[in-house]
Amino acid sequence: MTHRTTQHTEKNLLGRVALVTGGSRGIGAATALRLAREGADVAVTYVNGKEAAGDVVRAVEALGRRAVAVRADAGDPEDAAGAVTVAARELGGLDVLVNNAGVGLLGPVETLTPADVDRVLAVNVRGVFLTSRAAVAVMPRGGRIITVGTCMTQRVPGPGGTLYAMSKSALVGLTKALARELGERGITANIVHPGPVDTDMNPADGPYAPGQAAMTALGRFGTAQEVAETIAHLAGASYVTGAEFSVDGGHAA
Ligand SMILES: NC(=O)c1ccc[n+]([C@@H]2O[C@H](COP(=O)([O-])OP(=O)(O)OC[C@H]3O[C@@H](n4cnc5c(N)ncnc54)[C@H](OP(=O)(O)O)[C@@H]3O)[C@@H](O)[C@H]2O)c1
Fold first, then answer.
1. Can you give the pLDDT at residue 9?
2. Is there a catalytic annotation at residue 208?
3. Which of 67, 76, 146, 221 could be 60's S-S partner, Cβ–Cβ 3.0 to 4.6 Å?
4. Which atom of ligand 1 is nearest to the CA of 196?
5. pLDDT, tens digit, for every residue of 35-88?
6. 127 in a domain, yes or no?
């Protein structure tokens, strides 16, 4: 039997500008490249990964698109909004926002300190709110907001996830409320819930990996590219809003 693979080359996003937060590595970097392949110019934010963000910029440019890297800590209120200002100024507007930057702090509930709670909520929740708020101020009709949640908003398979699951669950409410508020402006908001995905945050050869893979129906980790595929689809979709998408190998099944 012959198996054929097809490379998706349709330029659905030609002429559009996207901002991907946390775009220097992992799911964010794969998303930046995927959006560029579909024709978008792309801004990425990073905190420590200046060199990696530069590599993403060069890879986007090699695809014939414009790109810019912006150092912006999603946990800092000024940076969270400022990333939108820089992206729109450098690339000429903003059509697609991918709220991808996030931190995963796991541990028994009694070990998580008030400072841990503040930091995780600042990056995973307040940052997403403030970046989205800044984005909708400049987005034209047809704008798209895609937020990265987690499969743990749907099913928490074991202990240690209180803070992370709580923070990401807030993004479901934000997404639905944004969809209702922005619908009349033709702007959509959706959320993608990855399952275990092989990145620096959650390596497929890490100590907890076998247990996570076993929780999925497909019995394996996903790749950053497999998540990016759904994000890119939503960047081009016109009649989908307020919706949650599991890209989790069946973790929630
Ligand atoms: N991997 C998984 O299994 C999994 C599963 C479900 C959901 N997710 C979610 O998917 C998203 C991406 O995760 P990933 O696995 O790709 O992580 P990753 O490989 O650790 O990459 C994280 C990216 O976010 C950036 N970042 C971290 N903190 C930031 C901050 N405060 N402000 C701005 N950027 C920041 C990092 O930039 P620097 O390079 O500068 O550090 C990097 O580009 C996160 O929201 C995560 O919660 C991941």
1. 54
2. no
3. 67
4. 3
5. 999 999 999 999 999 999 999 999 999 999 999 999 999 999 999 999 999 999
6. yes
**Reading across the β-sheet that carries 41-46, which strands appear in turn?**
67-71, 41-46, 17-20, 96-99, 144-148, 188-194, 244-247
Domain containing 64 equals 17-247
| Residue 5, pLDDT above cutoff 50 | no
Cα distance from N-terminal residue to C-terminal residue, the chain: 30
Output phi, psi for 95, to 5 deg: -110, -30
Ligand 1 centroid vs 27 CA: distance in angstroms?
A: 7
| Domain containing residue 191: CATH number | 3.40.50.720
Confidence check: pLDDT of 1 > 60 = no
| Overall domain count for the chain | 1
Answer whether residue 236 is part of any domain.
yes
Choosing from 46, 118, 226, 247 the residue with most ligand 1 atoms within 8 A of its CB, the one to mutate for a pocket test is: 46
Cα 21 to ligand 1 centroid, rounded to whole Å? 9
Q: What share of the chain is helix, strand, coil (3-state, %, to 5)?
A: 45, 15, 40
pLDDT (0 to 100) of residue 10: 72
Percent of the chain with pLDDT over 70: 96
Reported as half-sphere exposure (CB side, CA atoms, 13 A), residue 86 has a value of 20
Residue 6, pLDDT score: 46
At residue 216, the 3 state secondary structure works out as coil
Q: CA 37, 38, 41 angle in degrees (round to 5)? A: 80
Span from the CA of 39 to the centroid of ligand 1 (angstroms): 24
